[in-house]
Specification:
Low-confidence stretches: 3-10, 250-255
Shape: globular
Strand order of the largest sheet: 1-2-3-4-7
Distance between the termini: 33 Å
Structural class: alpha/beta
Strand content: 5-15%
Length: about 350
């Protein structure tokens, strides 16, 4: 590898999985999502009856409507609070870039869903792009005295930049997702700034431990990671600081066995540093030990969660889990929340 290739490899911007992060965030935090971004729609829903996501039905609709997969779309059936509509379908699209066809596509989706499922449909759009002037919210067509028009609510994430204090003080967990998204856009190509904002968002989350359960905090930390990936240099420092935050709070995001492995990792790191007799060796040993401890701890927690969900873990699954990186283990943990079988974990 040439010096030029090495430099390019080191400075390459980590890829953000916008679609994957938002698809999971909307489904796992559906109520908070609507409450923060579409409060009028949130008020219509009877939250005493769990929403039902219609994944298979939507795939069928997509095929029949002959629309390519160019965005994140979710479809949920909810019960209305006053019973006037009995059930209501909510179609949600997340778009991370300017798309000149979005109005017509949403109209096609809305009418196709209504036609095929024979239910009332509300369509909304989340616009996560970086163009502050792009705010499509209406589809219309007129010819020969005929006129059709569909207005759909939108949530322009850039508009929330001016409401940062509100987001940071909010106890709505979806505010964390919005903050991570905004700062990921803002810090593109600025690794140090991204590290600083990622840490600030995590610190803000831990400052609200009385408002969120330990499971919810861990879930939100995962979404922050998905939306704000960092180079290894900054991620190591971030991980160390997050562990410090965990130790300072009464609510922990890691299980006791994970803590044990992290402690052992730190001890091994310090020992290695002392043996080498160099400050640099001590620091590298500490960081490597912490990362190894964190990885083993993640494996233990993930295996425990799989066992609690599906019973005894097959040996081949256990072996695959133990070979996962921290990032891969996080992705499996996210899938586990909605998975109905081991096969859906993708192991």
């Amino acid at each position: 590898m040439t010096i030029k290739q090495q430099r390019k490899r080191v400075t390459r911007e980590p890829r953000v999985d916008w679609d994957g992060a938002w698809k999971e965030a909307i489904q796992q935090l559906f109520g908070p999502f609507l409450e923060l971004l579409f409060p009028e729609l949130f008020a219509l829903v009877d939250w005493g009856i769990p929403p039902v996501f219609l994944e298979q039905e939507f795939r069928l609709i997509r095929r029949r409507a002959k629309i390519g997969k160019s965005s994140v779309d979710k479809l949920a059936r909810v019960q209305t609070v006053d019973g006037s509509l009995r059930t209501l379908l909510i179609h949600m699209e997340f778009q991370n870039q300017v798309d000149k066809d979005i109005e017509e596509r949403l109209y096609t989706y809305n009418t196709s869903i209504s036609l095929i499922l024979q239910e009332q449909v509300v369509t909304v759009a989340v616009l996560g792009d970086s163009d502050s002037d792009w705010k499509p919210d209406t589809y219309s067509f007129a010819a020969g005295g005929f006129n059709v028009c569909m207005h759909f609510p939108i949530a322009k994430l850039l508009d929330y930049s001016s409401q940062w204090d509100m987001l940071e003080a909010s106890t709505n967990p979806f505010a964390v997702v919005v903050m991570a998204h905004l700062k990921s856009l803002e810090t593109y190509g600025q690794p140090e700034s991204r590290f600083e904002w990622k840490l600030r968002i995590a610190e803000s989350l831990y400052a609200q431990t009385g408002s969120h359960s330990k499971v919810k905090i861990e879930q939100l930390i995962l979404f922050i990671d998905l939306l704000m990936p960092q180079t290894e240099q900054y991620e190591t420092t971030y991980v160390a600081r997050v562990h410090e935050l965990e130790e300072q709070q009464t609510v922990k995001t890691l299980a006791p066995m994970q803590k044990l492995f992290i402690k052992q990792g730190r001890q091994e790191g310090r020992q290695e540093g002392r043996q080498e007799g160099r400050q640099e060796g001590r620091q590298e040993g500490l960081q490597e030990g912490m990362l190894e401890g964190r990885q083993e701890g993640m494996h233990l927690l993930l295996l425990a969660q799989i066992a609690a969900r599906f019973g005894e873990v097959p040996e081949e699954i256990e072996v695959k889990v133990q070979g996962l990186s921290v990032d891969a283990a996080r992705e499996v943990a996210i899938k586990l929340i909605t998975a109905t079988s081991l096969a859906e974990l993708g192991l």
